[in-house]
Each structure stands twice: as C-alpha cells, then as structure tokens.
Amino acid sequence: VQLVESGGGLVQPGGSLRLSCTASGFTFNSYAMGWFRQAPGKEREFVAAISPGSGNKYYADSVNGRFTISRDNAKNTLYLQMNSLEPEDTAIYYCARSKASYRQPSRLPAEYTFWGQGTQVTVSS
Q1: How far is CA 63 from the centre of its chain?
Q2: Cβ neighbours of residue 48 under 8 Å, at least 6 residues apart?
Q3: What are 53-75's pLDDT values in tens digits?
Q4: 28: helix, coil or strand?
Q5: Beta strand 9-11 with 119-123: parallel, antiparallel or unpaired?
C-alpha cells in the first residue's frame, strides 16, 4: 500500500489549495479515506473523510464549509479542496486509508492503518 500526497505549499490568508493523494497497492474504491493534519506541537487531528462510493462525507467543524473532500476512483486519487484558508490551517496534511474495506468513514485516527508521508500547507502573509 502506498499513499502519496501532493499539492501543498505557501498561500496567503483567504487563498485556496487543492491537495491530492494518489493511492496504489490496494483496491481504492473499496475503502473509506480520510484527511488529517498535524500542526507543530499539536496532536494529529481529523479534517475530512469520505466513503468508498463518495455517498458519505464528514468534516471537522473547523473546516466545514471551507474544505471539500472528493475522490476519483477511476484515477485512484483522493482530493481535498481548501478555500478561504486561515493561518490556523497551517499544518502537515496526511491522507489515510481505513482499516477495513466497505466501512463508513471515521473521524478517529485509530480507524486508519495506512498513511502518506504528508504535505506541508503554510498559510501566511
């Protein structure tokens, strides 16, 4: 299993970024996927999650209405569209695969077994 994030960078407050996570080594369309983030000195926290068929999506309260999670099962790729970015969104962003196939997405890091290496997002003027 391999998960590779991309799309991070430096952006001004109010700006947008789209993160991608390319997956390989498993049947992508059978697993819920999630995005998490970790800021310096803080614990890893849930950002968003999506069910295998995209029917269910969950968001952290702090990003709801600003971020959108999506997936393209034909391309084995997970996305996170981030709009109206704030300095508080600065963190390393990780994508993750759920423990078992055909489970509903979870907000809990313990429910995910495989993680990417992360991509840095910095929101600063």
Answers
A1: 12
A2: 34, 35, 57, 58, 59, 60, 63, 67, 68, 69, 80
A3: 999 999 999 999 999 999 999 99
A4: helix
A5: parallel
